């Protein structure tokens, strides 16, 4: 089926960051230039990332450096998604985070009490995201909270993070370690492929029907899978984790596969 037919009726684009906009610290120019044109053409573009290391505010500033002027309200992170879910579940939660500054900022912005690993206050939730400063002490504190019955929330289960020098361990690797140590499974996965996070992005874009949304990402197991579960249009771009060799013989179904976003030809 032709790309233009698959994208007929699409009003909003939900776009991944790692592997689509940049690889590590290096921008993917073909994609950023195409995204600038799409925004100028009037498409509603929301950036949606499983990476909780930075906040929506910080990602907005990083996108601006690439010439993509994006309000923080049009950025959705898995840390923000986890914070919203906890607010709905517990109100103001007492959270022990395993993650970086972006996760902490999103938790605080939603009114949660964020605890340090030496705090005497008992956490009623542990939220685990990407943490490139992970220590044994952090893991030990998370395990102690889980043993006392704290909710176990993953920002995402991505096993690796794509970078310009190759894949690095992702948040999912830390989640799996804590699952093994605690003998517990997570209570909630706040990131892709859970359609919950797509609903947040759709609300930001001002659309209600999944068929009006194209989900653009570089991973079959998160971006494409989430789009399929939700009934949105999946677009796989081969600039990140998934390469052409990975899709040989793959039944694409209604998934649009492009080498870069310039091939979409939307405007």
Q: Short summary of the structure?
A:
This protein has two domains: 3-50 and 192-264, Rossmann fold; 90-189, Rossmann fold, CATH 3.40.50. The chain has nine helices and 15 strands. Helix content is 35%, strand content 19%.
Task: Sum up the structure in keywords.
single chain; 267 residues; alpha/beta; Rossmann fold; 2 domains; 6-stranded parallel sheet; 5-stranded parallel sheet; 15 strands; 19% strand
Which CATH top level class of the largest domain fits? Alpha Beta
Strand content: 15-25%
Identify the CATH architecture of the largest domain: 3-Layer(aba) Sandwich
- What is the H-and-E element order? HEEEHEHEHEHEEHEEEHEHEHEE
CATH superfamily of the largest domain: HAD superfamily/HAD-like
How is the topology of this model organized?
Layout: H1 3-6, E1 12-15, E2 22-23, E3 26-27, H2 29-40, E4 44-49, H3 56-64, E5 75-77, H4 78-90, E6 94-98, H5 101-109, E7 113-114, E8 125-128, H6 136-147, E9 151-154, E10 160-161, E11 168-169, H7 171-182, E12 188-189, H8 195-205, E13 213-217, H9 220-230, E14 233-237, E15 256-258
Parallel strand pairs: 1-4, 1-13, 4-5, 6-7, 6-8, 8-9, 9-12, 13-14, 14-15
Antiparallel strand pairs: 2-3, 10-11
Helix pairs in contact: 4-5
């Amino acid at each position: 089926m032709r790309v233009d037919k698959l994208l007929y009726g699409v009003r909003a684009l939900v776009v991944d960051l790692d592997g689509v906009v940049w690889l590590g610290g290096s921008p993917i120019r073909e994609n950023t230039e195409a995204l600038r044109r799409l925004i100028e053409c009037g498409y509603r573009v929301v950036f949606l990332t499983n990476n909780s290391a930075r906040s929506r505010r910080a990602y907005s500033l990083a996108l601006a450096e690439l010439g993509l002027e994006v309000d923080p309200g049009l950025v959705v992170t898995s840390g923000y998604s986890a914070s919203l879910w906890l607010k709905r579940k517990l109100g103001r939660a007492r959270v022990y985070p395993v993650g970086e500054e972006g996760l902490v900022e999103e938790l605080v912005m939603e009114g949660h009490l964020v605890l340090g690993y030496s705090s005497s206050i008992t956490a009623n939730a542990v939220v685990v995201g990407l943490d490139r400063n992970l220590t044994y002490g952090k893991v030990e504190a998370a395990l102690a909270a889980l043993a006392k019955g704290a909710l176990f929330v993953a920002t995402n289960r991505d096993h690796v993070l794509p970078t310009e020098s190759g894949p690095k361990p992702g948040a999912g690797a830390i989640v799996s370690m804590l699952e093994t140590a605690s003998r517990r499974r997570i209570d909630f996965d706040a990131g892709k492929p859970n359609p919950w996070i797509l609903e947040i992005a759709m609300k930001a874009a001002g659309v209600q029907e999944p068929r009006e949304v194209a989900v653009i990402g570089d991973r079959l197991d998160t971006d494409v899978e989430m789009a399929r579960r939700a009934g949105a249009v999946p677009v796989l771009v081969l600039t990140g984790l998934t390469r052409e060799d990975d899709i040989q013989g793959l039944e694409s179904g209604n998934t649009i596969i492009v080498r870069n976003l310039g091939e979409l030809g939307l405007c």
